[in-house]
């Protein structure tokens, strides 16, 4: 798996200060996507053991709340084995003390039909799902989604997730 972005100090993609990983590869190709350069599976750099250690090192900072995995799309079949390994490594080291947020252009209902996607969802705390729809674009700040059709879905009870950001599934 390749990645096109990595930040140890992200405040735009989930609550609090976060480590964020933008994976490469997406076949959804939403019109108006904010990150179309991430569609190419060969873009960016290979995710290695060194990258995983840098990610875990960033999460060790006491002020970092959790991990955000975006893309591209983490739920592309080419990305899922490595994304699952990352989520499992975070859980092994941090248990539930750091939350995992993950974004997909696919809906939860579609993801739950795939056993590999279900395995990733079982490690995550929050899923932001659905394709970006340009005519439903959100322009005000403070949302974790790009268009109003997208949902922020708690996958497990997380006291640290701000209730004001929750969106009930439609």
Automatic annotation (TrEMBL):
<keyword id="KW-0408">Iron</keyword>
<dbReference type="InterPro" id="IPR034457">
    <property type="entry name" value="Organic_radical-activating"/>
</dbReference>
<keyword id="KW-0479">Metal-binding</keyword>
<dbReference type="InterPro" id="IPR012837">
    <property type="entry name" value="NrdG"/>
</dbReference>
<dbReference type="InterPro" id="IPR058240">
    <property type="entry name" value="rSAM_sf"/>
</dbReference>
<protein>
    <recommendedName>
        <fullName>Anaerobic ribonucleoside-triphosphate reductase-activating protein</fullName>
        <ecNumber>1.97.1.-</ecNumber>
    </recommendedName>
</protein>
<dbReference type="InterPro" id="IPR013785">
    <property type="entry name" value="Aldolase_TIM"/>
</dbReference>
<keyword id="KW-0949">S-adenosyl-L-methionine</keyword>
<dbReference type="InterPro" id="IPR001989">
    <property type="entry name" value="Radical_activat_CS"/>
</dbReference>
<comment type="function">
    <text>Activation of anaerobic ribonucleoside-triphosphate reductase under anaerobic conditions by generation of an organic free radical, using S-adenosylmethionine and reduced flavodoxin as cosubstrates to produce 5'-deoxy-adenosine.</text>
</comment>
<comment type="similarity">
    <text>Belongs to the organic radical-activating enzymes family.</text>
</comment>
<keyword id="KW-0004">4Fe-4S</keyword>
<keyword id="KW-0411">Iron-sulfur</keyword>
<dbReference type="Pfam" id="PF13353">
    <property type="entry name" value="Fer4_12"/>
</dbReference>
<dbReference type="InterPro" id="IPR007197">
    <property type="entry name" value="rSAM"/>
</dbReference>
<keyword id="KW-0560">Oxidoreductase</keyword>
